[in-house]
Each structure stands twice: as structure tokens, then as C-alpha cells.
Amino acid sequence: MQGRTSEDGGCMKEATAKKRANSVMIVLIVNEELVFRFPSLSREVKIAPELLDEAMKKKALFHGVKQKVGDAAAKERDPETGKPASVEEKYAAVAAMASRLEAGEWTSKQSGGGLGLLAQALAEVRGKSFEEALAYLQGLEKDKVKKIKALPQVKEVMERLKPEMEVSAEEAEGLLEDF
């Protein structure tokens, strides 16, 4: 099956996007279709899941879950020791992700009272999971959270992550249209 293509962006009713710096392609979910947008070409390719046969849907399902669970195990090196994550840490991350998926949760509860970006940066700096960093931050007094946010290494990671999490006005067109 070949995806449908479009020369113009069209109207977005629903969309989710994660833009990366210098990206040539933006992947969105628009009206329950996957949209692969190439802004520099003003073109896109759309794939409607309902047009896929059952065997292809099953392959896509297994690929997505395998990728999601594998990503959980892809832990960074400990920034203090330089050692890679242990087998036990990787196992714990995979088991936690499997449990979360079986409970119907694709993403962790990342809101954390506005601590999501800080928790993500702190997790990267300290070689911990997002959940561990968020739980740690939630247990602190506000003044200590501010001090952690001001740490140079944390600040640097937050600045790097921030553009990845932002959506431009052009990409966001229509995101809240049906709210």
C-alpha cells in the first residue's frame, strides 16, 4: 500500500508532534492518521490505519511495543561513574514499562505540577529514570527545586530539551480546535 500524499498541509483537527531541531520530517497524528510532513517540500504522506490489513496492523503493533519497551532499557551511562546501566536497572526499566503498557498507560504521568522538563533533565544528568527524578522533585521544598533548576548542568540539558518539546504556531494550528 502506498500512502496518500498531499502538496499542501491541509487543515489539522487533532495533532500531536514532537519536533526535533534541524528535522526534515515532522511526524503527526492528524484525524487518526499518521502524517509524515516535509515542511521544506510543502508535502506530506498520510497513512490511515484502517486501510492496513490485520497482519500489517499486528506487525506495526509488535514493532511499536518492541521499540517502546526497548527504549525503556536504553539507559544512559551513570554521569558520576561513567559506567553503563546495570542489567538489573535495564530489567527494572523494561518490567516497569511492560506493567505500564498492560495497565493502559502509554506515557508516564509526566505533568508533575510543572516539573516535567526539570525531571527529564535531572534524570539525564543523574542517570536515573524520569519517574525517579519526578518523585524526588515532588518531595522537595520549592526553594530547593529552584536551586536544582539553576544548577549549570541541569540548566544546560533543559535548554537542549526545550526546543524538542515545543511546537511552532504553524504546527500547532488547530490543535485545540475541537476543545
Specify the helix fraction band. 40-55%
Rg over CA atoms = 19 Å
- Rounded average pLDDT: 76
What spatial form do the alpha-carbon principal axes imply?
A: globular
In spatial order, strands of the major sheet run: 1-4-3-2
Strand content: 5-15%
- What pattern of helices and strands is seen along the backbone? EEEEHHHHHHH
Assembly context of the chains? single chain
The count of helical stretches stands at: 7
Largest sheet: 4 strands, antiparallel
Short account of what is shown:
It is built from 7 helices and 4 strands, in the order E-E-E-E-H-H-H-H-H-H-H. By secondary structure, it is α+β, with helices and mostly antiparallel strands. The protein has a 4-stranded antiparallel β-sheet with strand order 1-4-3-2, with no helix packed on it.
Explained architecture:
With 179 residues, the chain is α+β, with helices and mostly antiparallel strands. It has helices at 54-73, 87-102, 116-126, 130-138, 142-150, 152-165, 169-172; strands spanning 4-6, 26-30, 33-38, 43-47. Among the domains are: 4-51, no CATH class; 109-164, no CATH class. The protein has a four-stranded antiparallel sheet with strand order 1-4-3-2, with no helix packed on it. A hairpin with a 4-residue loop joins strand 3 (33-38) and strand 4 (43-47). Helix 3 (116-126) crosses helix 4 (130-138). The longest helix has 20 residues, at 54-73. It starts with a strand and ends in a 7-residue tail after the last helix. Mean pLDDT is 76; it is low at 6-22.
